[in-house]
Every structure is written in C-alpha cells, then in structure tokens.
Amino acid sequence: MSVFKRIYKFIASMRFAIALLVVLAVACSVGSLVTQGQSYDWYAQRYSERTAALILALGLDDAFHSAWFIAITGFLCLNLTLCNLTRLPRLIRLAKAEGRPEGALKDPGDVSAANIADPRAVFARLRMPAPIACQTEDGREALFASKHRAGLWGAWVCHLGILLLILGFGLGQMTQEQYAVYGVPGDVKPIGDTGRMLQIDDFTVGLRDDDTVEQYTAKITVYDMNADGAPSQSAEIRVNQPATLFGMKFYQNSTGWAGKVNIAKDGEPLQEAVICAGEYLPVADKPELVVVLNAFYPDYRFVPGEGPSTASGQLNHPAWLYSVYYQGQVLGMNALMADEELTIDEYTVTFTDPQSYTLISVKRDRFTPLALVGGLVTMLGLLLAFYVQPARAWAIRQDDGGWTVHGRCRKGGAIWREDFERAAGTASNEE
Predict the structure, then answer these.
(1) Per-residue exposure over 186-207, b if at least 16 CB sit within 10 Å of its own CB, e if not
(2) What pTM value is reported for the model?
C-alpha cells in the first residue's frame, strides 16, 4: 500500500474521527473555562504572568477562532467527507441489491418458515409491499419484496448533517459580523459599515413591584441606504425575543441612563445634546474642554467607604456624576444634583431630562441557514438510523407445492424475528 493510500485510509478512519472528537471536546472545555477576549494584564492579575503568557501563546484567549481550533475542525470535516465518499459506492450497491431478488433467493435469511400455503398473507402481515414474481436459478417459482431501504442511509445522512452543521457553525463564527448600537428614542445611528441605519422609535423598561427590571422593549426601524429609496423594516425586540431585519439579527442587550446636557456661555445658550452614561461632549467653541457623563443615580446616596450608589430605580433624588477635562487633564469630578449647575469659567453646565437608553446588539451570520440545514439533515439521519428498518422477504415454492418463506431485517433483531414467526404461524393456522 502506498504512503498516500495509508494517509488517506488513516484520515478517513473511525479511529482518527474519535481522536479528533476527543481533542475537540477538550478544546471546547478549555475554551469554556478560560475567559475569552481579555488582555495579558487581565490574565496575569488572575492567574500568573507565566500562565498569562501561555494563554496568549496558545491562543486560548480566543480559542474558538484560533488556528489550532480551526485546524481540528477542518480535519474533522475532512474525515467526515472522506468517510462518506468512501462508503457511498458500497451503500449504492447495497441499496440496489436490497431491492433485487437475485441475491436474496440464495440467502437462507435470518428466519424462515416452511409449508406455507399462502406466502402473500405472510408478506401482508409483515407489512411488506406487494411481492414481485420471479424464479430461482433452478427454475422454481419465487416471490420477493423489500421495504425501508432508506434506513440503510441513516448513518451516512447523519454524517452529512454533522458535516453541514460544523461547516455552518464554523464558517459562521469566522465570518460573523457584530455591531453595537445604543441611543435614546429618536436617535438614528449607522450600523457599522453595513450601509444601514437604525432608528430607535421607542424604548421602555418594565419594572416589577420591587423595582427590579422585568423586561426591556425597543421598537426600531432599519433603513437600507444601499438601495434606492432607502426601504425600511420595523420590529419590536425584547430580551430573548430578537428580530431579523435585512438579513441581520437584532437583540435587545441592555440599558443604561442618558440625559440632556445644556451648556451656556456668559448666560447665553450655547449647546444642547443628549449623551449616554460613559459618553463625553466637547464644548462647541472650545473643543479641548470636555464634559463627561460618568453615571446617573436616580435615587442618589453616598455611603462613606462605599461611594455613590442608588437606593432605588425611582427618580426620587437624581444626581449626575460628571468629569471635566481640559486638554486631556482632569479638572474635576463630582456629583451634580438635578437643581444644581456646574460653572467652568464663563461656561455653565446643567444636566436635565434623565431617560433610559437602549443597547442593541446586531449580528449577521450568512451561514446560519447552512447550520440549520445541517441540524435538520442530522435529525433525518438519526430517524433513518433508529426508526427505519430495512427488511426483505422472499418465498420459494417447494416440490410438494408448499412454500418456504424467508426473511431478513438488518436492524430488527429479536423484534423482527417475533413478527416474522407470528406472521408465518398465523398463515399456517389459517391452513
């Protein structure tokens, strides 16, 4: 055997497939245990510098997109492909042979019954299709029927489904596009570089009696700026209830507080904008002076040793935590009550109109349909493998005029034997 054939045989073998599945399971376990997407400093702080270096060197910080994980998945796909290609000619021959009487008439079968007067009754009780008339090699009259040959393809179809599932999921993970859009009702913001715009029409936060969040609900409209007339699609999304618009999936991710920043200069209105917690606003005529909204507390309280917090989700005692920077240097940081003003030289800053903003995650995975097809094909393969039992039965007329009926079922085992004996026994009793 040539080296190429040996390599081919090994890659297409069940032993190699099992080894790959074990390695893949270990890799998935490690990827689940190690927090993904963090920096060297983050890992070094929680583990050690040596462990952090090892995590980054092995790509465990992004295990499911690493070269070694893709290689394992690729070899598994290659194994499944070669395995199916190798078995395909044999399966085709076997499926054809199952439907032909020539080979069956020489086979003693798994079980047989002699002295049957009406073999067609046995076929009927076994729920076989109408038998075809044929002859043995020595010219004796014979009957033959087969059913459920599709069951022979169960394992093959299951392997094909798993292959499609892995390809759909793997390619989807490698090519998936993810975006985050956040804002308040009325905002219209771009969705990354997709050429589509997301408009937040409305956003509500449903609270329980104890002020804990019950549900977030956002109404959105997406405009496709790539097409003439900018067609739009609208939907309502909630936590665990995403919507699909223009081939992208929109998830209600989280929420936070936003507010209106009013800046006046020498008592005259200069600037007004709505910003979310964590955002900043450069002063219009002095961009090196920046106001940052760090956080908003609807029911502000300050506990020594713990810092600022909120006593409830109700707007009982609102306060804005701000920072001011000038040319990158911090000028000050403090909490501003709702009725207070911040004065910076000739500028006066106030925060008003607290409202909730919504954070919407947008994902586009072009290979999701392939993964869904793979799942359906896998389920079909399992059904064929476990519930569809290929069987065939044949009868040969003996010299005394009676018939001997034979049967074979590749998956039926004892159940098939019992069914056959019951059908043949009933036919004998009716004689």
Answers:
(1) ebeeebeebebbbbbeebeeee
(2) 0.69
